[in-house]
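Standup notes
- DV: blocked on the single-chain target, sequence here:
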Amino acid sequence: MNFLAHAYLSFHDPSLIIGNMIADFVKGKQLQLYAPEIQRGIQIHRAIDSFTDQHAITREARQLFRPSCGLYGAVFMDIIYDHFLARDTQRFTEAQLAAFAQSVYDVIDQADMELPQVFREVFHYMRTQNWLFHYGTREGISRSFNGIVRRARYLDVPASVPFAIFENHYAAMETYYAAFFPELEAHVKGLIRGE
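- DV (later): unblocked, structure below
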């Protein structure tokens, strides 16, 4: 899962939002530097990633990228799930998505001193370019894919290749999202309740 899904699966809890958003930038014993509520968000982020990575639907979806993008298909699928979440009218209208994105940025802004430095740099671009909202557009996905390809060490294809896979299999990927995301959401709610 990518940033939008992690924020959404924090269910408006500020500490969970912060932990969920910074988790990829917190390594090993650095976890102990954070308040227990934020640690919980980091742990939930990791549980979300584990559930997603191991799920049969996600594994099947990633196979579409395997011939040209290898293991990077996992990263592209995380962003594609965010795209369909942003467009999921059962969860967001366009106005609700815009308001939700702003509320997440506000929570993170208020926690500035608690954020890892590398995440602060990422967050600057996330907020100024409004990533959470723009995941719902094809242009936003294209920009995200370009960023991945630019930073990828072991991916030797232009961003147009994974983007073409996204475009050519759009309906199938929407079906994968629709089958997978409710299971993930139920799983995370269970974790939060301590089940």
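- Follow-up: The chain has a mean pLDDT of 94.
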